[in-house]
Design a protein that fits this description.
By secondary structure, the chain is mainly α. It contains 5 helices and no strands. It has one domain. The relative contact order is 0.15.
């Protein structure tokens, strides 16, 4: 008995494993949780995390470049560190308030 499956049967199997609905709420909740974590973080913790994210991106891009035909889309100019540097320039309390409000709006939808 062959264990090979056709592309169509594999597609059907994968689709059967997916949730039946488009669960955007789950992704909004993930984003809201991330925003709440950023809101609770101090400036130094944010900068360290951003530096780590930039280092990860460089390593990941190097790894992905080993696969022929894969196009790499780098982070925007300044990378994650640049984005966080902009956040750190804001007043910490104001930054936290805005990010928590944004998270609350995401959770409402």
């Amino acid at each position: 008995m062959s264990t090979e499956q056709s592309p169509a049967s594999l597609t059907e199997l994968l689709v059967s494993l997916m949730p039946e609905n488009d669960d955007r709420r789950m992704w909004r909740n993930y984003m809201a949780s991330a925003l709440e974590q950023v809101a609770a973080s101090d400036d130094l913790a944010l900068l360290r995390a951003a530096e780590g994210a930039d280092e990860f991106e460089v390593g990941f891009m190097e790894f992905v470049s080993n696969f022929p035909g894969v196009e790499i889309e780098p982070a925007p100019e300044g990378g994650f560190y640049g984005v966080v540097l902009g956040l750190v320039k804001l007043d910490r309390n104001l930054r936290g308030e805005v990010l928590r409000a944004y998270a609350a709006e995401l959770r409402k939808r």
